[in-house]
Amino acid sequence: METAFPQFRDALLVVVDGATPELAEAASARLAARLAADHARFRLVRRPDGGDFLAREGLLFGSRHEVEAAMAGLVAAQPLLGPLAADPSLRGVSGALSTMLDGVARGEVPRSRIDPALRALADATEASLAGKPAFFSWQDLFAGEGGGAAAPRRRLILAQPVLDHAALMDLALHNRIDTDLQRLTVTDQTPTGDDILDHALGLLAKGGDGLTVSAAVEEIATYGERYKQQALDRLVARGILRQEEGRFLWVFHTRRYPVIDDQEQREVKSRLRQILLSDEIPDPRDVVLICLIDACSLFDLMLTADEMKAAAPRIEQLRKMDLIGQAVAKAVAEIEFIIRHNTAAIH
Questions:
Q1: Hey, where are the domains in the chain?
Q2: Which residues, in sequence order, are CB contacts of 174 under 8 Å at separation 6+?
Q3: Model confidence over 188-204: pLDDT tens digits?
Q4: Which residues contact 84 (CB under 8 A, 6 or more apart)?
């Protein structure tokens, strides 16, 4: 599934609950906009159940009955919607209700037609006067009028955080940085000859000796999307991947990089599986790869559930062999916790 739909890999699902459909929509729109503007921490933010497209074309996804009911509700609410469109204030609401009451008094409109609106407004007003939270929803009111599908009070946001830890581990393998579980130090500023690593090394060198591992991960993550694209371009140039452009649901632009020849991939997976499921002495680069896979929670792509259970002690043993891997995994866990905490459900 992740190969077919890469836009859902490493995604955080943010659930926004609101007392009314309007509050849920407003909160999710504001949160999605703020997350999307934070390019340093999020490479992709989408609203699968909202946004401009669904706001314009949402009725196309309803059944015939739902669309007919929604239109009937709008037609039935026209006497109220017309005055409100001209004056969307409390005075406009009072004027609209006064006009509808005049229609009832003249026998032109049955009282049952305005009972739901009067009852909803009265409940909200009484709650407000009593100092209690008061919520009123026009969408709920109009859905009830026409018998259409109720507007949702729960909205969803899909966010893909930027987490780039491979550059730090590669720099450690090149003996350019050293670390304990808290601090990271640049030990050698000599260029490696790799444009990605040299750029990352320059960033870390500017941070001085007091750089924490978490701060280093965040600093590198700022350029995570750039590094990822550079790495993908290299693999395409070497004939390992090919670039494919497409559309998701015929609307959203997508770009995929399927493997042309997965021989290298199969060889790496086979070698790592052998190390994890045996007592074979690993190469330092393999230890770094295992720590990186662990930090990214990707072991399920190479081990079955039973193998994961059997290999758990071995994974823990290998993690302890690499200090930079431990430090990065700890820092990544802290950053992911902060991201999840700050994008928790809004009520």
A1: 6-158, 163-222+262-342
A2: 192, 197
A3: 889 988 888 898 888 88
A4: 92, 93, 96
Q: Residue 315's Cα: distance from chain center in Å?
A: 29
- Block residue for tokens 């993690």: 319
3-state secondary structure of 322: coil
Q: pLDDT digits over 24-53, tens only? A: 988 999 998 888 887 766 777 888 888 778
Six-digit token string for 97: 């209700």
User: Kind and range of the H or E element at 248?
Assistant: strand 244-248
- Quote the crossing angle between the two packed helices 64-76 and 78-86, to the nearest 10°: 60
Beta bridge partners of 13: 158
Confidence (pTM): 0.50
- Tokens matching residue 282: 């690993």
Report d(CA 185, CA 323) in Å as an integer.
Answer: 13
List the structure tokens of 272. Answer: 């790592």
The amino acid at residue 252 is F
Q: Are 270 and 262 in contact (CB under 8 A)?
A: no
